[in-house]
Design a protein that fits this description.
With 402 residues, this protein is α+β, with helices and mostly antiparallel strands. It is 17% helix and 32% strand. The chain binds fe (ii) ion.
Length: 402
């Protein structure tokens, strides 16, 4: 549900009755819920951006439902629920709500509301009081309207709390318009709890409540028994891990290199089909680069986890396969810069005779090797600076409009 006024919502009788969370009692099925203080864990995370929609997710510690109240003014006034097929959300770990019908380049204020639910039986469902987040605001992508953009790119954080704290502390001072988290957020995904913790309150920090985040999937993010649940927390514009996003003069193109080893590597036990997945992205990429918002942008920046280029031969099958399938299209599509991670060693490969764009690789995951890449562009010039965690500059790359 999207764009419903608060008055209509109230009239529907669906706002929780104020009051303490119901105490534990035995349900009709004889199961007694242990008494637990309901908590919202961390701040909301704004993701899956398009000029007219976003997705907002937040973590909870027990069974609850939730919605988002939002509006262009601080009085909010509209509500969006995460309901699907006639049911409002009910989840013990994550609430996620997509808001549609927004205006491009517009600031929206919002707050996330959670209501604990004691689900004691099909006919014995009890609501607690609403828990409201503080009011935050974000700006929707402008579809190219603005003459400038600033973005930050982090990668290969691998659940390292000191690195996450260092990066998010720096980003709090200068958040920019967009944050890209370029893969290997995880070591591998073993539990849903870990999914919520690492993406929604990493190192216990709020990081994308006010400035949105875009995720690019890394090879470690497709590993582990719960890797298939990544999409329950991480959201993308159309539920694919490859997408474009135009903000000011830059069209960002996010791609997914998948696993680094071949699909028939024994460690995957035959469960990976990433060669076919990269082939599928090749066709998508050829189309995406010709769309007006990408083709006509002053600059095109690719964000992808595994480097496509490097010492010959590239030591990672995923990157080499992607290069074979995407390189000609990227050149034809006039890509200006590729930003990668994965190697844990920062690097810059300048453009050469066969590759008219440079490849900037961030470091990580230990604090001493971690990097924060900042990108600033106007309609004539794009500047990428790679910083260490202490803020010092490793390298600066100035790219003129072609
Ligand atoms: Fe990686």
């Amino acid at each position: 549900m999207s764009g419903v006024s608060r008055r209509d919502w109230l009239r529907s009788g669906s706002v929780a009755v104020a009051g303490a969370f119901v105490p534990a009692v035995a349900g009709a099925d004889g199961i007694v819920r242990p008494p637990q203080d309901f908590k919202v864990l961390g701040a909301p995370v704004v993701q899956a951006l398009t000029p007219t929609s976003v997705s907002i997710a937040w973590a909870v510690n027990d069974t609850s439902t939730g919605w988002v109240e939002y509006g262009e003014g601080e009085t909010l006034g509209s509500m969006a629920g995460g309901d699907a097929d006639g049911l409002r959300p009910l989840d013990a770990r994550v609430q996620r709500v997509r808001i549609e019908g927004l205006r491009p380049g517009t600031r929206y204020h919002y707050r996330a509301v959670s209501v604990p639910i004691a689900f004691l039986g099909a006919y014995d469902i009890r609501r607690g009081r609403p828990y409201e987040s503080r009011t935050y605001s974000f700006v929707t992508p402008d579809a190219g309207a603005a003459g400038r953009v600033s973005a930050a790119i982090i990668n290969d954080t691998h659940e390292q709390p000191d690195t996450l704290k260092g990066l998010f502390t720096q980003l709090a001072d200068a958040p920019g318009d967009l944050l890209f988290w370029n893969g290997d957020m995880f070591n591998d995904i073993a539990t849903e709890q870990q999914l919520a913790e690492q993406l929604l309150y990493p190192a216990g920090m709020a990081y994308a409540a006010a400035r949105p985040v875009c995720f690019a999937r890394g090879n470690h993010d497709v590993r582990g028994a719960e890797a298939r649940a990544l999409g329950r927390v991480l959201d993308t514009p159309d539920r694919h891990y490859f997408f474009t996003l135009r903000q000011g003069p830059v069209a960002f193109i996010v791609l997914d290199t998948g696993e680094d080893k071949p699909d028939d590597a024994p460690v995957y036990a035959g469960l990976g089909t990433f060669d076919a997945y990269r082939t599928r992205q090749a066709a998508w990429l050829a189309d995406a680069l010709t769309r007006a918002e990408v083709r006509d942008a002053p600059f095109r920046v690719v964000v992808v986890h595994i480097p496509l280029y490097g010492e010959k031969p590239v030591p990672f099958h995923g990157g080499a396969d992607a290069r074979d399938k995407w390189h000609d299209t990227l050149v034809r599509g006039r890509v200006d810069l590729m930003i990668t991670g994965h190697t844990h060693r920062h690097a810059w490969l300048p453009p050469d005779a066969t590759r008219p764009f440079g490849q900037l690789t961030g470091g990580g995951p230990q604090p001493a090797a971690a990097t924060l890449i900042r990108l600033e562009a106007d309609t004539q010039r794009l500047v990428a600076r790679m910083h260490r965690l202490d803020g010092s500059v490793i390298s600066e790359h100035v790219i003129a409009r072609r």
